[in-house]
Design goal:
The chain folds into 2 domains: about 15-50, no CATH class; about 50-160, Rossmann fold (3-Layer(aba) Sandwich), CATH 3.40.50. Helix content is about 15%, strand content about 35%. It has 4 helices and 10 strands. It is elongated and about 65 Å long.
Amino acid sequence: MQELAGLREGFGWLYYGAWRARGLLDSPWVASARVVRVFPDTVRVEVTERVPRVRLARPDGSVVVAAADGTVLPGAALSGSLPLVSGWGPDRLPDVLRVLGALSGYNVQSVVFTPTGLSVKLPSGSVWSGDLQALLKYAGSISMYPNSDISIYPWGVSVQE
């Protein structure tokens, strides 16, 4: 962090400004950084790091780890506890991340996206929806039907036991 922030032994703290810490923002692991000069001779750098949220299967077959904002985090461990996101068609990662946020209490194992919808695999069932807003609206239905396969439509919910 010191190197990314441009903090070196003997640097002139009096001339240290946010422009010197821009290297921090070049790191995909850093979500935000703030430089605070504390007189008489201290510089404090406050950093908010991104946290791994999903494993993302790319079209070339590689798997990377991404944060909640979709930023790929190089060098992150491919933890099996993170949901695996895969699919084809237009990029639906922003939609998938919203759904994962809404379903954060359900231990989502994987999400597959296609141009026609999202399929969410849970430990004991699944959820499909072709409409993001309907899925977010009826997400509470999942707890009412454990161990079921649920399809969510704009007009309601279908349950297969």
